[in-house]
Amino acid sequence: MTESIVTRFAPSPTGYLHIGGARTALFNWLYAKGHGGKMLLRIEDTDRARSTDEAVNALLDGLSWMGIDWEGDPISQFARADRHREVAEQMVAEGKAYYCYATQEELTEMREKARAEGRPPRYDGRWRDRDPSEAPEGVAPAVRLKAPLDGETIINDKVQGTISFPNKDLDDLVLLRSDGTPTYMLAVVVDDHDMGVTHIVRGDDHLTNAARQALIYSAMGWDVPVMAHIPLIHGPDGAKLSKRHGALGAEAYRAMGYLPAAMRNYLARLGWSHGDEEIFSTDQMIEWFDFDAIGKSPSRFDFQKLENLNGHYMRSTEDAELLEAFKIYLAAIEDGQEVLNWLSQSGNEGKFLAALPGLKERAKTLVELHQSARYLWVQRPLDLDEKAEKLLSDDARALLGRLAPKLDELETFTAETTDAVVREFAEAEELKLGKVAQPLRAALTGRGTSPGIFDVLEVLGKTESVARIRDVAH
Ligand code: GLU
Fold first, then answer.
1. 243 annotated active-site
2. 35 or 131: which leads in pLDDT
3. Which of 44, 51, 200, 233 for mutating ligand 1's site (highest number of atoms within 8 Å of CB)?
4. Does residue 244 have a pLDDT over 80?
5. Which residues line ligand 1 (CB under 6 A)?
6. What average pLDDT score do residues 384-396 get?
7. Separation of CA 188 and ligand 1 centre (Å)
């Protein structure tokens, strides 16, 4: 039997699920799903000041919104500190690590000396082979790894290829600080080992950490997991991703009206490709995803592309599903409650669904859908935007006054029947259709632009439509 695949996503709680983190999570998830494995979630919460419940929940919430799930409960790195200490002590007992009694002053001096001599700051190994009986009194020791002094450490990375790090550059790293807290480097290795992680997929900013971590694995006699270090995401201009470029949290993308399926598709293509395919379902991604098609250079975040892709998903998502996504979006934005209330009233979801096929053709995001569907829930008398106000001149208001009874006479009130009435009316008035349709649009929606006016009439129904027209008509 082949070993079953275990990946993990190991975010530090920063207050939100950063877009780069979302992609890392997605890659781990896709790989595990596609290989009959599982993805675990470990919260690297050792920075206690930042690791509030709120910050952790923001991560979980972001992942859930993205549709990325994990196996079992999230694992807290902080909660495992005793186990990290135990491993460090075991390494000391086995001669793989040692107590270092160097004081802060000595370490500072070491660093300064190295700097003065133009060398990288390295620990000089002064306690490496010293007998602990020489330990100064009253100094709490740190635990350092007895790292190899020469040779090299090789990382066979699935994305970066074979990379070798001269061991002389990787000094005796600290495993436990003198206050007994484990270092990040130790914690990651012990956790990944204990969690049975077989594949580590993460940003390539962790590549040099990989070499140091490999030393810890080998000191413990543990197998190093398969590693895949993915290039970071850059902005469209090639510079490091900043807020301006889209280095935002998942919740920001939710509020900008993107669909989770579009986000998954877009993020999957940020750094990974499958031939010329641009649009793939989640099942296809799971089937196709592999490390060999991850590029070595940073990918560029492009809002325009995301928006276009989202437009595609808006059009191709089933109406009922799109309604659910719309509700999730509404619940996450500041002024969404009013529309949620409206939707919860009897008959209104039906109205929304009736309008949706026309609306979703033109909306690239849920924000645009929110705007274009606005006519559904606005209350009479409608407030008019500037353009609508302009369209509703005295003449136009008088025109609508003549049109209203004709619409009111209709027995079946559909896009077709209203279309016929309005055309006939325009002809009788010797006007182009637009001259009637535009003020009509303003009257029905309060806006100068709107979805197709006959669809609007049908969805609103006769009573509401005629009432809105009469509100502005002379
Ligand atoms: N907590 C690290 C980060 O957020 C990830 C560590 C890892 O994947 O090994 O960058």
1. yes
2. 35
3. 44
4. no
5. 10-12, 44, 188, 202, 206
6. 97
7. 8
Give residue 24 CA to ligand 1 midpoint distance, Å: 10
List, in order of start, the domains of the chain with CATH numbers: 79-230 (3.40.50.620), 386-472 (1.10.10.350)
Q: How far is the CA of 438 from the centre of ligand 1 (A)?
A: 56
Using pLDDT thresholds of 50, 70 and 90, give the confidence band for residue 1. Answer: very low
Q: Which of 9, 12, 230, 232 to mutate to test the pocket of ligand 1 (most atoms within 8 A of CB)?
A: 12
**Share above pLDDT 70 across residues of the chain, in percent, rounded to a whole number:** 99
pLDDT at 119 over 90: no
Question: pTM of the entire structure?
Answer: 0.92
Catalytic residue among 33, 240, 243, 387: 243
If DSSP states are collapsed to H, E and C, what string results for the chain?
Answer: CCCCCEEEECCCCCCCCEHHHHHHHHHHHHHHHHCCCEEEEEECCCCCCCCCHHHHHHHHHHHHHHCCCCCCCCEECHHHHHHHHHHHHHHHHCCCEEEECCCHHHHHHHHHHHHHCCCCCCCCCCCCCCCHHHCCCCCCCEEEECCCCCCEEEEEECCCEEEEEEHHHCCCCEEECCCCCECHHHHHHHHHHHCCCCEEEEEHHHHHHHHHHHHHHHHHCCCCCEEEEECCEECCCCCECCHHHCCCEHHHHHHCCCCHHHHHHHHHHCCECCCCCCCCCHHHHHHHCCHHHECCCCEECCHHHHHHHHHHHHHHCCHHHHHHHHHHHHHHCCCCHHHHHHHHCCCHHHHHHHHHHHHHHHCCCHHHHHHHCHHHCCCCCCCCCHHHHHHCCHHHHHHHHHHHHHHHHCCCCCHHHHHHHHHHHHHHCCCCHHHHHHHHHHHHHCCCCCCCHHHHHHHHCHHHHHHHHHHHCC
Pocket test for ligand 1, best of 56, 63, 202, 229 (most atoms within 8 A of CB): 202
What is the whole-number distance in angstroms between the Cα of residue 289 and the centre of ligand 1? 21
- For residue 129, is pLDDT > 50? yes
pLDDT in tens, 133-158: 899 988 899 999 999 999 999 999 99
Q: What is the pLDDT of residues 168-195, one digit of tens each?
A: 888 899 999 999 999 999 999 999 999 9
Average pLDDT, the chain: 95
Query: What is the atom index within ligand 1 of the atom nearest the CA of 24?
Result: 8
Tens digit of each residue's pLDDT (9 = 90 or more) over 288-298: 999 999 999 99
How many A from CA of 47 to the centre of ligand 1? Answer: 13
